[in-house]
Amino acid sequence: MSYSDQIKDVGVFFDFENIVYSLRRAYGINPNFEDLMDKCKEFGRVVVARAYTDWSGHRTMTVPLHSSGFELVYVPIYGTSINYQNQSSGPPKNIADMYMVIDVMEVLNSQPNIDTYVLLTGDKDFIPLAQAIRRRGKRVIGLGVDGASSPHFAQTTDLFILYSEVSGLPQAPSTSRPSDIYEALVQAVGRLIKEDKSTVLPSVKLEMGQLLGGFDEKKFNDDDGVPFARFKDFVLEAQGRGLVTLITEGTVNTVLLTEKTAQAADRSVATAPRSEEPLTVNRAFSLLSQAVRKAQDEGRSPRVASIKSILNELSHNFDHAQIIGRSFEKFSDLVRAAEKQNLVRVNGVGNQMEIYPPRITDEHGETPSPNYMQYRAVSDREARQLVMDGLRAFDNYPSPFIPLESFCRELRDERSIYLPNWKLRELLTEANHSDLLITTSPLGAVPKTYELTSNADLIAMFLNKQGFGDSNGNILPGTAELHPTPAVENGLHSSLEDAVSLLRDAVAQASEGEYSLRPADISKRMKRMAPDFNITEVSNNNGAMLRSFTELVAIAAERGEIVISGSETEMELRLAD
Prior knowledge:
Strand order of the largest sheet: 3-2-1-6-7-8
Helix content: 40-55%
Number of domains: 5
Structural class: alpha/beta
Largest sheet: 6 strands, parallel
Strand content: 5-15%
Number of helices: 22
Mean pLDDT: 76
CATH topology of the largest domain: Rossmann fold
Distance between the termini: 82 Å
Number of strands: 18
């Protein structure tokens, strides 16, 4: 047997930025290229070793890489381009991944002698490449950084190695590692659950590898002395010992802890040291989503400055310009990218931008339209009463403005009242300007805090003097003329019928011509169709005059004449079926 028959040939392909930036962000170190190459040589004779990036930004790395046996492949980074409308088409795009894939496929076709392909990356984008290599009957070895590698990519390879198995990591001392593989399994599942991550089999195995400095179930035996053929077999053995529970739904296998091991895992996770994860794009999106929900839960401002502040609380090293794999020139670019994936919802631009949790989607991933038909339209007086009820029921004074507004919104939704957010905010602002809400915070304090007054006169004025009596039971001055007028025959004025009919005609005309169905455009169309039409001359069901086009829309929707679809900022009007 010749030497060439005994030694297998190996091809090494180095996703430079994935490994280097992951190590820098998570551990503050650069990779040891000699250690990487020595590990690759354990699988055979390295005949191809290429590293991919734009080397103009990594000149100090070129000599060590050359010395370790790597061939450097220059990959240009294309800067932001300008389209024909003079608008930026997006951030710079690094196409190193594409170069690497093309090279691997060319080598796969031109050098059949190469038996093993080592992919130095933890990027899940290489899953199709790994699958293509294996379909050719070749072996795929993956090598990625602890805490920054995709478990799904790891599962696709024949063997996945963590960097800590190749070279030391300052944040991963061996003394902190579990002494038993079953103990490591419980800790791994516990950590994933604590961090609100998936506990599917690939994720659990990768987490175990990080705890143990590498893990291969085939090196261990079950109680009968038989080596584990699959990681799932190992988990089933642990289930038989009462440590975990394996839940199978279709093709997805999820590992859960038992009640007994969950308590032990909580203790071990609380004491085990763990460095902050590298700032990948997915982690940046996750942190942004957490910050937005934290702002909502704690009643903090949804403004972009507030969200940035919360992000810094969640991650001390958060920097949108240093995200691994895709840097964002501006923070708003990151927010807009998250919005496209329905991870957040955005209103406004610039410093006025507000970031909210995403809209709820159904099982098909569609955003259901709000069912405004379930909400009833109210007069301005009833809207004021709602705000007053909310301010009285609120029990956490002194309070910033945002929690007060959130509480009133919840009360509005509980009562199924149609009251736009802008109108609710307008009424609360009026309450502050009329001294119904008294500022209690020191001058210059942020955020300002407010307290509800107990002055009956101020309350009556805010409620538009709706017949509230004084201490002797008399009607307060100026309230009598505000009592609702008696309803006319059938409870409706003919002008309301005309207004609703005109609204229907405007919506129908816009639908037939495929014109805008937004309320503002429908209102303009109504005025073009009937120049003498004036919304303030129309009476509602109770005889009170309408104050806005929104009230007419709400009445028409309540009567089933039209249907309102979309969010408050993207509302459209359509004819009811």
